[in-house]
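Risk mitigation, structural track. In case the binding assays with glutamine fail to produce interpretable data, a predicted complex structure has been prepared as a fallback.
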Amino acid sequence: MAAGSTEEKLRQLREGKLTAAENIRQFLKTIKGKNSSINAILHTNEDAVAEAEAVDRKIKSGNAGRLAGLAITVKAAISVKGLTVCCASKTLEDYHGTFDADAIAKIKAEDGIIIGMANMDEFGCGSSGENSAFGATGNPSAPGLIPGGSSSGPAAAIAAGMCDLALGEDTGGSIRNPASHCGVVGVKPSYGRVSRYGIVDLAMSLDQVGPMGPDVYGTALLMETIAGKSENDATTVNKDVPKYTQLLKKNTKGLRIGMSTEFEEMCSDRRIYGVVSAAAGKMAAATKSMIKQVRLSHVDLAIQTYYPLVYVEFFSGTRKFDGRKYGRKIEDVCGEEALRRILGGKEISKAEYHGLYYRKALKARRLIAEGFEKAFKDVDIIISPTTPMLPHKLGTKITDPKAMYAYDAFTIPANLAGICAGVVPAGKIDGVPVGLQIMAPAFKEELLLQAMAAVEKAGQ
Ligand code: GLN
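Fallback model:
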């Protein structure tokens, strides 16, 4: 058990060496000290210390849950009763959750403590953390650079030591890209593995709630807590949830690891490919695994396929923000990127009568998913970089949407295919963290997490 690890923290809490209240107070102090510069937290939970004291009583009486005493921050698009669910948008500036999302209810049932709501790109529209109506988030691991997005706040909060774990949401890379840039761990679960009940959609056919943490163990623990069938979300699948944390203890051996030729060609920064290949090589040697090239057909079309789907689904999902119930009309107050998607989505929806874009995108999506199915006949997992470029300087915002969209070329395919994918730190380039992405077949999160743990271990 490494010092400072989530597992070690849990042991201290369980054995009374650290109380839940002390844990929360320490994080609140860090938030107070650092948040004015990092801007990761939009709203802290005023009841967190009292909630922690109640958890301490449960720990003492020996009936506390699996997350007892851990502090969790939540992307501000996931409903927590009484806390802001503003999606970093002026539209929902004064909106507070009236109920707990399924994932939140499960965290609370295991005695995790929601310490605050985290910053993000408005409604999840972005990859840099710069599109928040409440100011950009900083990157604690690479000061002066963007933290990645759209789950910028959750990743930055972990990296800055403001919480133990965090809950993010990933439609096209929003958990993985900030995990990579901030040097933390994150998982986008398979579509249908985690209930989406209580999240504000970016694009409902792609969104997944997922765990983030400083290490694979903590991430697996949160994954184990939030996964599973829910009566509230018909897209969730009725499959048992394995005990991911226990399975991590098994030593992974003899994996067939795929590296995609297509991703290699699309990686504009060769240094990133170098760091990721080296980490993959180390892990393969440590686990007696073999690396082979795989072809992922049509993966180069992922961005063109993703955006028409997102534009249309976002347009449709935001029609309820018309100013009558939740706050100001979205089009009147939202930022440029959200507006671009609403207007674009409206046009595409009109053209849909002729099946011009959305239905074509659905066909391309199917082809991309089939490409993965084929590749997974030859390999168990696929390793790739997370982003094709390093984070840019905060304040030098990329204004060309196409250039910004290119950021997610490696992460979007997993969302389109509905498979699971995770990111784990692989190394650094000039001090800037680089995360390695692993993709695994749908509902094989245990394999994904085991492989991620093997990378983490090989890197130490
Ligand atoms: N950057 C992508 C987008 O802007 C992904 C967003 C996300 O995963 N929420 O759509």
